[in-house]
Structures are given as C-alpha cells and as structure tokens.
Amino acid sequence: MPSIFSSIKDQGNCGSCWAHASTENLESMWALKTGQLYTLSQQEITACAPNPNDCGGFGGCMGSTAELAYAYVSTAGIAQEWTYPYTAYNGTTGTCRAKADITPTNVQVNGYTAIASNDQDAVMDALARVGPLAINVDASTWGSYGLGIYDGCHYNISIDHVVQLVGYGHDDGLNADYWIVRNSWSPAWGENGYIRLMRHATPTCGWDVDPQDGTACKGSPAQLWACGQCGVLFDALYPNVVAN
Fold it and tell me: What pLDDT is recorded for position 100?
C-alpha cells in the first residue's frame, strides 16, 4: 500500500495549524481513495479560505478551522504545494492568488463529516474504518515535549491548535494506551514531528475556557465541554473526498 502521509511540515510563526492539518488530512484521505499522494498547498488554504464569523480566530495566520478549510476546497479546489508554496512562515498571511494563476489538482471535496463530539468509541471507529482525522487540541503545554506518552494537559482546557490524528496504540513497556498525533512544528520537534497522547479507558473531561481560540465563532458560548487528553476528542472530522 502506498504511503498516505507527506513529510512533516513547519508552520513557523504563522497560526496556520488549521490549514496544515486540513491539507495533511485531505492528502491522506485522497491517497486512501485513489492511491495518489499529493503534497497540497497549505498556503492556498491560509491565504484564501474565508472566515467571516471569526471561527477559531480571524483567518489566515490569526487562526481558523478545518471546517472552513474544507468548505473552501469544496468550491475552489486546491493546488499542489510546489505550484503554490508556503510563504507565511514568518507570520504574514499573504494575499490570495487569482485562480487563473493557480494550477489545481484533481482533488475534489464535498464538505466534511464530523465525528460525534467527545465520543472516544466513535473517534476510534472512524480512525479504523475511514482513516486519519483533523482534530482540535490544547497544545499550550507541548513546547517542551520530546518523546514518550504525554499526560501533561490540565482541565481547564484551552483548545488552540489543529493537528492530524493518525492512529492509536499500546506501549507494552509503559503498559499505557495512547493516541498518535501528527504536528506541524517541524520533524525536529517531538518524536520526528509526532506526539503520543495518553489515552484513558474513561476519558477525562473539562471546560474549554477559550473556545474562540479553537472552533468557536462570534456569539458562541464562553465555555465548551471537551474530553480526552488535551481535548483530543472534542472536534474531529475528515473531508468527504470525491474520487471519480
């Protein structure tokens, strides 16, 4: 079976995690459907996907959501990274290029499927049955992570980061279950760009006290209930790939 993961990316000083995770997961879902692994343009998503209701931030390098990324691709398509390279590393979103100047791929999306919020069984089933997921997490304490199974998030939660959930497993040496998460902070971070999060049989939950840093939009509640290590179960979804 061909690989379904492109190389680990580095979003730099731009809050474009939402664009990175959504394109990474679109790459994986397209590869699973067709056998073609593209490296898609996170810059196009960063610069072009609208965010009129300030969901997860103010758009571009100021944050947004995977839901809005897939809404954009559903109507506009998406280019490969080499034709529309990432330029937002230093924190400047950049201007959306005219579609006439972009060579799109044949990747097509018809919206997305959201997994039931805070439902561990549903998330595990989707990973096994469908494939990787774009998820929202509290990564505010991840800076010093190097290796091992991370169990350092607190409850109150502050969901502030979008990543790709790629699987789960069990560490025999530690006798502990974990989630496998792909990050966008370069391959030098964590376990070659990945982090393993503790997975409890009964997930711990808490209040997301800064929901607009995650998925909330203008007018949303001031707090939202989130479960799993670092809120890993709160918001999970995958794009509905259309493969002709």
Answer: 80
153 backbone dihedrals φ, ψ, rounded to 5°:
-80, 155
Residue type for position 13: N
Catalytic residue flag (residue 230): no
Residues across the chain = 244
For the chain of 244 residues, list the mean pLDDT of each consecutive stretch of 10: 88 98 98 96 98 97 98 96 97 93 91 98 98 97 96 90 98 97 98 98 93 91 94 98 86
Q: Are the beta carbons of 12 and 54 closer than 8 angstroms?
A: no
Measured CA distances, 164 to 66, 127, 176 (Å)? 10, 11, 21
CATH class name, domain 17-241: alpha beta
List 14, 136, 153, 161, catalytic entry: 161
Cα(66)–Cα(58) distance, rounded to whole angstroms? 14
Q: Look up 17 and say whether it is catalytic.
A: yes
Q: Where are the domains of the chain?
A: 17-241
Q: What pLDDT does residue 104 have?
A: 87
- Residue 161 is a catalytic residue: yes
Active-site residue identified among 17, 48, 61, 230:
17
